[in-house]
Amino acid sequence: MAAASNGQQQTSHESAGIRQIHLPFSTVVRITMNGLKIRFWRSIVTASGIFLGIAFLSYVTTNLLSTSTNDADERARMIWLVVMSLLVSTVGIVNSMLMSVTERFREIGTMKCLGAPDNFVVKLFVVEAAFVGTIASAVGWLVGYLGAVLVKAASMGIIKAFASVGLVLSLELAAGCILVGAIITLIATIAPAQRASVMPAAAALRTQI
Amino acid sequence: MSATEYIVRTKDVMKEFKMGQETLRALNGVSVDIKRGEYISIMGPSGSGKSTLFNAIGGLDKPDSGSVFINDVDMAQLDSNELAFLRCHTIGYIFQTFNLITVMTALENVRLPTIFAGMNADDGTERAMELLNIVGLGHRYDHKPSELSGGQQQRVAIARALANNPSIILADEPTGNLDSKTGTEIIELLRKLNKDQGVTVISATHDYKMLDVSDRIIWIRDGKIDKIENRADLDIQLGGMAGQEE
């Protein structure tokens, strides 16, 4: 994909030697992973924003799904909790990602000065968000799920507790939590990253936080 | 590639900024022609519009009207990808605040532009080491910007600006955050690169040390060109002034 483009892109500026920059996807992934590694602890803080939200969501949803109460009030209360936890995790994730993109506006401006194409900048953040969002959500689900089981185990014993939650249901819930977490993370990242990437480089460099 | 005499031309460049209710005209019809291989200083007091002109020439900000030509290509005609290509291959930027990527080592910073140019990792590393040696920092390649002095950070920035063999180096107050001695070293390094490699240096500054090495000085005042001086003429003036002081 990267190599094929140079020959085909005959722009009117070809005479001046101006062409398109195409970077292979592997480069994007390499730079992203390197970036995550370098700012490991900062990434952990960002990820914990996602993790906590999803853990809460996973905990209350596991409780809701494994409770066979017929009490309408009780059910309504639990559904309300799930909705609340969804709201809390959304706000937490948006806050984390907005901050982690905004604090790098200058870096985005610098990268643009060095020749990074706009879409490359967005891709960097998308790959990072997809990676961090998925992992943090998966861990969040596991912790929330285990938390719910352990609370039940205190009253009914560990085996009964696992049985009451059920494996199939748990895996469905896991998929749901990861999907919800990853999608919210992606949306919360793409919006500011897109805005930063189309900003004139000078404006991005001027940003102070 | 067309080899024209003028590497940068601006024509009636106009740029306004909105500051609350007021509109500030930062550039009010600036036309300059800069030759290949020149060392140009854009001088003027703070707020005169020199940084705005720097941003317009470097394609970092779009002028409201007028045009900027680099190698006879009108920058307004380029899409964002072509602009990125231009920034990658034709222009190297140096800033007052260095703008190194803080989480990367000196070597990684210098190598970054080569990644955008599609160079493979080994060649990029080799090129980055070569440049760090040129600016005298080969032995500190593994240090993060926070572990380097201001002068050293600016050297890394200069090495980074040279990564893809640009024909223009744009420097915005390159000595602004440096002490006088370090500033002189940076100016001398830029001059050396200008002479040895024939790279055109355009520097926005209010550091009078720059006057000595510049081929021409463009004085900006209130968004307009006040005067353009050749160094030959300036030597006489400076000599006169130095004489008066004694």
Quick recap:
The complex is a heterodimer of chains A (209) and B (246). With 209 residues, chain A is an all-alpha fold. Chain A has helices spanning 5-8, 25-38, 40-66, 72-102, 105-113, 118-156, 158-165, 167-198, 201-206.
Beta strands of chain B, count: 10
Biggest sheet of chain A: strands, sense, closure? none
Mean pLDDT of chain B: 88
Sketch the topology of chain A as an H/E string, one letter per element: HHHHHHHHH
Poorly predicted ranges of chain A = 1-12
How many angstroms does the end-to-end distance of chain B come to? 51 Å
What characteristic shape of chain A results from the CA principal axes?
Answer: elongated
How far the N terminus sits from the C terminus of chain A, by CA atoms, comes to: 38 Å
Indicate the structural class of chain A.
mainly alpha
What is the fold's blueprint, element by element?
The complex is a heterodimer of chains A (209) and B (246).
Chain A: H1 5-8, H2 25-38, H3 40-66, H4 72-102, H5 105-113, H6 118-156, H7 158-165, H8 167-198, H9 201-206
Helix pairs in contact in A: 2-6, 3-4, 3-6, 3-8, 4-8, 6-7, 6-8
Chain B: E1 6-19, E2 22-35, E3 39-43, H1 50-57, E4 65-70, E5 73-74, H2 80-89, E6 91-94, H3 106-116, H4 121-134, H5 150-161, E7 168-172, H6 180-197, E8 200-205, E9 216-221, E10 224-230, H7 231-245
Parallel strand pairs in B: 3-8, 3-9, 6-7, 7-8
Antiparallel strand pairs in B: 1-2, 1-4, 4-5, 9-10
Helix pairs in contact in B: 3-4, 3-5, 4-5, 5-6
